[in-house]
Write a structure and sequence with these properties.
The chain is an alpha/beta fold and about 210 residues long. It has helices at about 65-75, 90-100, 145-150, 175-185; strands spanning about 40-45, 80-85, 105-110, 120, 135-140, 155-160, 190-195, 205-210. The chain has an eight-stranded mixed β-sheet with strand order 1-7-8-6-5-2-3-4, with helices on both faces. The longest helix is centred in the first third of the chain and has 13 residues, at about 65-75.
Length: about 210
């Protein structure tokens, strides 16, 4: 299969789990009660019908996030043919990217617990992997947050931060976390902030581009 820049092809590790019993690591510690002002700039909404044949499993939180993020990635980067879904858990986002948009996608996650048919790399994500893909996606990437953001120096990145895995010394709410990432990446490229159309408050994406 075509893997975009770098021409890398990965194999499906065939590691499966029970989708209805798994909760994304770290997401249960999200700042759902954080009092934050409305995010700035754009609003992206996926206008497809609510009934979605791709999503047949139950997940913690608003399961529409997988479809909305996949649709946004495909519309924002129409030339992309390969992607990394960092800390993607069972790979529902990766499944949407491949089946709905013909974007080959690897779930890069050391937990190695993906749905049948989803390509995966059971390892921790490192920014050095970014050149193998056309776009890097981090939907609530937890501990991989800094590596995902660092990838913006090499490839386009769509990251939706969740809990504060950015700083171990400073308490950061949702907006402060977004501001910290934005300030950091502006030294390496451009940043766009987009509110995505699924239940928040962790529904704001940063689109990071290299210089």
């Amino acid at each position: 299969h075509h893997r975009g820049l770098g021409g890398r092809s990965s194999t499906n590790e065939r590691l499966h789990g029970r989708a209805d019993h798994w909760v994304p690591h770290g997401c249960r510690r999200c700042g759902w009660s954080v009092n934050a002002s409305p995010p700035r700039r754009l609003l992206f909404s996926s206008d497809s019908p609510k009934a979605d044949p791709v999503t047949t499993h139950r997940f913690h939180g608003d399961q529409r996030r997988f479809k909305v993020v996949a649709d946004f990635v495909a519309s924002r980067f129409p030339e992309a043919r390969s992607a990394a879904d960092v800390a993607g858990g069972q790979g529902m986002l990766a499944r949407h990217l491949r089946k709905r948009h013909n974007i080959e996608c690897d779930v890069v996650d050391p937990r190695g617990w993906v749905l049948r048919g989803v390509s995966s790399r059971q390892e921790e994500y490192r920014s050095e992997m970014a050149p193998f893909y056309d776009v890097i996606v981090g939907l609530h990437p937890d501990e991989a947050l800094r590596e995902v953001v660092a990838s913006g120096s090499f490839r386009p990145v769509v990251v939706v931060p969740c809990c504060n895995f950015w700083s171990t010394t400073t308490k950061l709410g949702r907006d402060a976390l977004l501001d910290a990432i934005e300030t950091h990446h502006l030294r390496h490229g451009s940043v766009e902030r987009v509110k995505l159309d699924f239940k928040g408050p962790q529904n704001t994406a940063l689109v990071l581009q290299p210089r």
